[in-house]
Design a protein that fits this description.
Elements: E1 50-54, H1 60-67, H2 70-76, H3 86-98, E2 103-109, E3 112-122, E4 125-132, H4 141-152, E5 158-163, H5 167-175, E6 179-188, E7 193-202
Antiparallel strand pairs: 1-2, 2-3, 3-4, 5-7, 6-7
């Protein structure tokens, strides 16, 4: 997504309903668009047994609970239109799990489900997204989970998006080697208004 450890999610584009926005704007003056920290330049804090595995049916109730947290929804911004809609939630995860082009992984810590990470196609690009239960923010789980997912992906570049004020998610992406390449904006159901976001890229 930490603060959304969210999950960042840049954002969960597989269930986003709005079409891609206008051409991504370059970053404003003062925001670097040149390569930043090298991949995994920041040491990852290893304090628990964090693992990724394929998503199972019994993970979904936990994911539903995680996505229903009001503070996590506000921070993520780009969320499902109605996080309480169980039918839409089930349909979304059916699409995610049956699409061969989407890589979906459950994040567990010491055997407990704490969230998920995704990689999915958006046009000709690959984007990543993630969501960590708010009870587990601030422990480095999002960074470690995303780092592990990126090791699975052979393709580069990889892209991500995060609301400009989602500082936790931006920090996760930066630690994993992403750099800001531009800006975009769109309606964010989690806040009920248009929200500006950064578009980031990992090339190495």
């Amino acid at each position: 997504m930490r603060h959304v450890d969210h999950r960042a999610r840049g954002r969960d584009r597989p269930d986003a309903t709005r079409p891609p926005g206008p051409a991504v704007r370059p970053p404003p003056h003062g925001v670097p668009a040149v390569p930043g920290p090298a991949r995994r330049a920041y040491p990852l804090r290893v304090t628990a047994d964090l693992r990724l595995r394929p998503v199972r049916d019994d993970d979904l109730p936990e994911f539903y609970r995680h996505q229903s947290d009001p503070e996590a929804i506000r921070m993520a911004a780009f969320t499902a239109d109605d996080p309480d809609d169980r039918r839409a939630f089930a349909a979304h995860w059916h699409r995610v799990r049956t699409d061969p082009e989407i890589v979906s992984r459950t994040v567990t810590v010491d055997g407990r489900v704490v969230g998920y990470v995704l990689a999915f196609p958006v046009g000709k690009q690959t984007e990543v997204s993630y969501w960590i239960d708010r009870q587990h923010w601030g422990r480095g789980y999002a960074t470690r989970a995303l780092d592990n997912l990126l090791r699975e992906l052979p393709q580069r570049p990889v892209h991500a998006r995060a609301a400009k004020d989602n500082l936790g998610s931006l920090a996760v992406l930066r630690k994993c080697g992403f750099v800001i390449r531009g800006e975009d904006h769109g309606y964010a159901a989690g806040r009920g208004r248009d929200v500006e976001e950064y578009v980031l890229e990992l090339t190495a």
